[in-house]
Amino acid sequence: RERLDIFINTEEGEEVGAHLIVLAAFFPVFRKHLSGNDIVHVRLPRFSLDVITAAVEYAYGGIDNISPETAVRLYLLAHNLKNKGLVDGCTNFLCAR
């Protein structure tokens, strides 16, 4: 948790930490927070810990393994966070099933 500057709260009330600069590079909606020096807290209560963790893993280099159910929810999150690459990746993953 050291030097993490964005924390995302999940539907379970869990918190996922990350580096804002990494998330902002992949998810344009986070770019508005780059101008400040504060720790950012974002609530995404419609999304589970598994889905938020998968999105953060994607930003840090890729997702190892997810279920089709998680992929559907990740598709919705990717759409909300405006990442076409992840939307397309989820679509391809689900179509291949």
UniProtKB/TrEMBL annotation:
<dbReference type="Pfam" id="PF00651">
    <property type="entry name" value="BTB"/>
</dbReference>
<dbReference type="InterPro" id="IPR000210">
    <property type="entry name" value="BTB/POZ_dom"/>
</dbReference>
<protein>
    <recommendedName>
        <fullName>BTB domain-containing protein</fullName>
    </recommendedName>
</protein>
<feature type="domain" description="BTB">
    <location>
        <begin position="4"/>
        <end position="68"/>
    </location>
</feature>
<dbReference type="InterPro" id="IPR011333">
    <property type="entry name" value="SKP1/BTB/POZ_sf"/>
</dbReference>
